[in-house]
Amino acid sequence: MTERETNPDARLVIVSNRGSVTFSRNDSGEREHSRGAGGLVTALNALSRQRSEAVWIASAQSDEDVRVAKETSETGESHEVEGLRILLVEHDADAYDLMYNHLANPLLWLVQHGLYDLPYSPALGHETRRAWEEGYLPINENFAEAVAHLLESSSEGGEPIVLVHDYQLYMVPHFLRERLGKSAFVSLFVHIPWPEPEGWRILPGYIREGILKSLLEADIVAFHTKGYARSFIRTAHETLGAEVDEEEGVVKYEGREVWVRPYPISIDPNEFEELARSEEVLEQEETVKSLPGKLLLRVDRMDLSKNIIRGFHAYDRMLELHPEMKGEVTFLARLQPSRGDIPEYAKYAGVVEKTVQEVNQRHASESWEPIVLSMEDDFMLSVAAYKNYDVLLVNAVRDGMNLIAKEAVVANEKNGVLILSESAGAHEELGEHALTVNPFDIDEQADALYDALIMPDDERARRAKSLQETIRSNTIEEWAEAQLEDIAAYREWGD
Ligand code: F6P
User: Which residue among 15, 16, 17 is best mutated to probe the pocket of ligand 1, counting the most ligand atoms within 8 A of its Cβ?
Assistant: First the structure.
């Protein structure tokens, strides 16, 4: 038996920090799994289902994940779950904490979303350097090691393709090249915004340059929008003096040519249609339908970038300006707990809860609670809410894409109106048929909420139809195909 036959699935490798599932044990001691968090998981799920030979490498998060990781590292086989091939990587817990809670999420996330209050923060120093050297770098190296190990166990089948995802893994291209040289095609997809060069300059030199140099060791660097791709090209030019061609989307650095491309990520509409019909969702719909009045919905991770507090202030303002709407609408805010070990996030969650209490106290009646805050992690309940909203609020300060806007629109059965931040990546595609808002302008958002709630049926139907058509014209399939076509073109060009 050849090595290829023992491991025929290793030619397309997807690498991301968060995997599609996380494992646990139930009360009877049996192994169970639940869905990983965030929109990236939705998209990569669809991608790896399409390419059944793909192996998805992700971090072991729970204790049971670590057990799964140990089992697979002993056998060298990927783990199959719901038709996906998954290989979990075990990390040193302290290093992971430094990478996730001290470097990637507070620092890179806040820099790339422009969320700092610059007169006060960030305050960088030796702790930042430690998080980089003892956290971010070793975790990225561990990932590269896992990829190299997998590929070495299956040397046949042509040049492998390694698709690395997101800001937790910026240094993986560098470590992969150290191990594999040019023998693999490497792309890195950045799923969050890329700032203008002056925004990137907040980072200390060793991070600022280290990350850019690693990204320029990939063959393709990908983003969700043309705007982010352009900002990246400018940053490479200004930070490293790289030769760039903005029009062609090319950066030349140290003898290499890197293609910088926008691929707006999407969803698999069929998956959401099926989910919408599933027993579990039908059961959950009763809860959603029992809420009084029209349904105003938001579904987000509890994240600073999502602009949750201004959303409540806008609703508060709308009720103040239009008291006749009291009791006629309920705001269901489904906020999935996220990154709670990071002080900025814990503080934000506290302010969110306090704001909900204040707005409710101001406007509630005996039979009506203006905002229903729901913070449990229940995807089926979210899909039930997607089906039934009259108005969906997506008012992010900045957002790479925001897949909720796409998932919810496809599942919705009520010609719901989408209110969409002009600073969400999804706005490039969906803005025309949504009500656009400036995420910082509370009165504008209040007006949009009111307009959406009283919008005539024919206009709702027209907008909902156009949104659906737009989403269906660029599904996850097109997203994957566009990348694979460019990979083929790049290889042909390189030969
Ligand atoms: O797309 C942004 C992203 O940070 C993904 O990388 C991540 O999987 C998701 O959102 C959820 O965040 P986290 O993995 O930190 O819970």
Answer: 17
Query: Is there a contact between 98 and 342 (Cβ–Cβ < 8 Å)?
Result: no
How close is the Cα of 207 to the center of ligand 1, in Å?
A: 20
**Residue 5 pLDDT > 70, yes or no?**
no
Q: What is the mean pLDDT of the chain?
A: 93
Taking the CA atoms of residue 242, residue 239, residue 208 and residue 403 in that order, the dihedral angle to the nearest 10 degrees is -80
Q: Which of 60-69, 360-369, 461-470 shows the lowest mean pLDDT across its residues?
A: 60-69
pLDDT of 453 above 60: yes
Question: Ligand 1: which residues within 6 Å by Cβ?
Answer: 18, 37-40, 166, 191-192, 338-339, 400
Ligand 1 center to 183 CA (angstroms): 29
Question: What is the DSSP code (8-state) at residue 328?
Answer: T
CATH architecture of the domain covering 269-473: 3-Layer(aba) Sandwich (3.40)
Locate the ligand 1 atom nearest the alpha carbon of residue 401 and give its number. Answer: 1
CATH match for 12-265+477-494 among 2.10.25.10, 1.20.1640.10, 3.10.180.10, 3.40.50.2000: 3.40.50.2000
Residue with CA closest to ligand 1 atom 11: 38
pLDDT in tens, 185-223: 999 999 999 999 999 999 999 999 999 999 999 999 999
Q: Which atom belonging to ligand 1 lies closest to the Cα atom of 105?
A: 15
Q: How far is the CA of 385 from the centre of ligand 1 (A)?
A: 22
What is the number of other CB atoms lying within 10 angstroms of the CB of residue 12? 21
CA quadruple 131, 133, 136, 142: dihedral, nearest 10: -140
Mutation to probe ligand 1, out of 166, 190, 342, 345 (largest number of atoms < 8 A from CB):
166
Residues of the chain with CATH 3.40.50.2000: 12-265+477-494, 269-473
* DSSP string for 96-141: HHIIIIIIIIIIIIHHHTT---TTT----SHHHHHHIIIIIHHHHH
CA 22–ligand 1 middle distance (angstroms): 14
Residue 200: name the closest of 188, 181, 218, 215 by CA: 215
Ligand 1 center to 114 CA (angstroms)? 17
Q: Which residue has the tokens 């156009």?
A: 466
**pLDDT by residue (tens digit) across 222-259?**
999 999 999 999 999 999 999 999 999 999 999 999 99
Q: Indicate which residue's Cα is closest to atom 6 of ligand 1.
A: 166
Q: Is 0.85 topped by the overall pTM?
A: yes
